[in-house]
Amino acid sequence: MKDQFVVPARLKKTSFVLMGVGLLTLLIGLIAFQGENATRFWAGLLQNSSFFLLITLASTFFIAATTLAHGGWQIAFRRVPEAISMAVPVLSAILFVIVMILVFGGKEDIYHWVNAHHVAEDKILTWKSAFLNKGFFTVATILTLGLWIFFTLKLRRMSIEEDGWDLRPETGRKLLWRNTVVCGGFLVVFTLSVGSTTPWVWLMSIDAHWFSTMYSWYTFASTWVSGLSLIALFVVYLKKHGYLTYVTEEHLHDLGKFMFAFSIFWTYLWFSQYMLIWYANMPEETEYFQPRVWGQWRPIFFLNLLINFVTPLLFLMKRDTKRNYTAIVFIAIVIIFGHWLDFWQMVYPGTVKTLVFPWYEFGLGLGFVGLIIFLVSNQLTKAALVPKNHPYLKESIIHHT
Amino acid sequence: MAVKKFVVGLFDDEAVLFPAVKKVRTAGYKLHDVYTPFPVHGLDHAMGLRETSLHTAGFIYGITGTTTALSFMSWVFNVDWPLNIGGKPHFPLPAFIPITFELTVLFAAVGMVMTFCYLCQLMPGVKKHIFHPRQTDDKFVMVIELTEKTNAEEVKSFLAAAGAQDINEQKAEAGWWFGRYDKDDEPYLRKIQTANA
């Protein structure tokens, strides 16, 4: 049984090529987008860094949620989300640098509330300034990123440490208990950050006059379903290279069910946010949908629904597709791309305004994908692929849907 | 509907039941059914039952619900009685979505429950033969149908070798008939009628 992952040379090369593409795009962007066009340079960075940070953080959420629910089926591949979550510190650092430049570098084309003069003249922004100000933004960002990193590292460290324990009923109980406590703590932080404030300050404040209480949940649903797809991609990759002996199509089936269900959940939030605003028809709320539904972004708005709802709904409905490795890889890539597109249409209409072919954004996205592959494959080598002392391991091995 | 002859064996444990099912199938006996007090994972595969088509039926019921809701609401608000509600268009798709969703779920759920009952021949007023009263309690009951080619004694000894207890032969109606479980008999008190007792 192959239990120790060794990074294949081909994967390493792929990750370096992708990172090279990302850096090259960044460089071209730096030269191409200057002066007035610099907005696009920063918007692309904000879109990609927040999206890829949140989909890796979804892995920590996956561990926390399944642990608290006393799920046993995921133990056979638990090291995969663990390794993905270890990309959170690096991606957090990248995002932190970017948003700090946006806020303190006075990039008012992205966040127009950073201009004090602007805020003083604007009644709505003055009223919101207790919340939307540089101090609060910085403190909230540092606090959330810090706590995410703390809990992610803690969960990973505990999991590796448990490999050295001997297998007894007492150690099993202790293992479950301390994992439950840490995961509970993380979920409180996660709910208050990704489930509520973080998307407001990072993304919704682009349209500073507009507000939607659904926005954070919408962002969460988007990143959670893409995060699940990311886990599925790594699981299939490892399985195809002869690792993860205990993972069968039963586990894949459950991951597929998750992807199917949360694609529908995303649509539910997408629609709820839209319908309330459509029904009330108040100018301060409809202004967000004006460029998206009736402006240049109309094709993207409906493409978003087609890729993220109709495709997974019809594709994953059948049992056979959820149990097929190739089919899952295909739909996982579609879902991640679709939600990347979703983030694009969340950030761009309020900043860059005009619809342009996203070669720059896509190039940056490839760079982030390369970075994630590089970090995750390195982390996968750091521990055995099966947490052999976990009390639920047997439950996972005999798992049957 | 026909009265047939069966050999019935009781099992205590899944671990004995699974190999027994396999042996019965390889020996070529006609497995009528296996009754279990709770759903047993993988038993359907072991028995060689085909994958159910219930979900396909559910999909069809679902899209029927979707079309019903959308076409009825569009007919009402565009053809039969057009009303101006809050200045919205006569075909306000977002406002129709929640109702469309509900009808989709309703049609799918009710349709699937009824199809399930039909497939299992369950219905108030419909009765089926109970091979052993403890089949819904704590025993796994395996029923083998006797054909002209099978010898009852041979099947009995075969089942005994496979680990079954309380093996008996029954002559019973294989299908359903109209009747009531509460009025017509008392399953727990009734003595099992054995054919060659």
From TrEMBL, chain A:
Q: Which organism is it from?
A: Chitinophaga ginsengisegetis
**Coiled-coil portions:** none
Specify whether Transmembrane helix is a keyword of the entry. Answer: yes
Give TM regions: 16-35, 50-71, 83-104, 135-155, 176-195, 215-238, 258-280, 300-317, 324-344, 356-376
Keywords linked to the UniProt accession: Membrane, Transmembrane, Transmembrane helix
Lineage of the species this protein comes from: Bacteria, Pseudomonadati, Bacteroidota, Chitinophagia, Chitinophagales
The name on file for this protein is Quinol:cytochrome c oxidoreductase quinone-binding subunit 2
Whether Nucleotide-binding counts among this entry's keywords is: no
Automatic annotation (TrEMBL), chain B:
Q: Which residues cross the membrane?
A: 57-77, 97-119
Q: Where is the signal peptide?
A: none
Q: Which domain of life is it from?
A: Bacteria
Keyword Membrane in the entry? The reply is yes
UniProt keyword annotations, A-Z: Membrane, Transmembrane, Transmembrane helix
Q: What InterPro entries does the database record attribute to this sequence?
A: ActD
Q: Which Pfam families match?
A: ActD
PANTHER family with a match to the protein in the record: LIPOPROTEIN-RELATED (PTHR40394), QUINOL:CYTOCHROME C OXIDOREDUCTASE MEMBRANE PROTEIN (PTHR40394:SF2)
Quote the protein name from its UniProt record: Quinol:cytochrome c oxidoreductase membrane protein
Species name: Chitinophaga ginsengisegetis
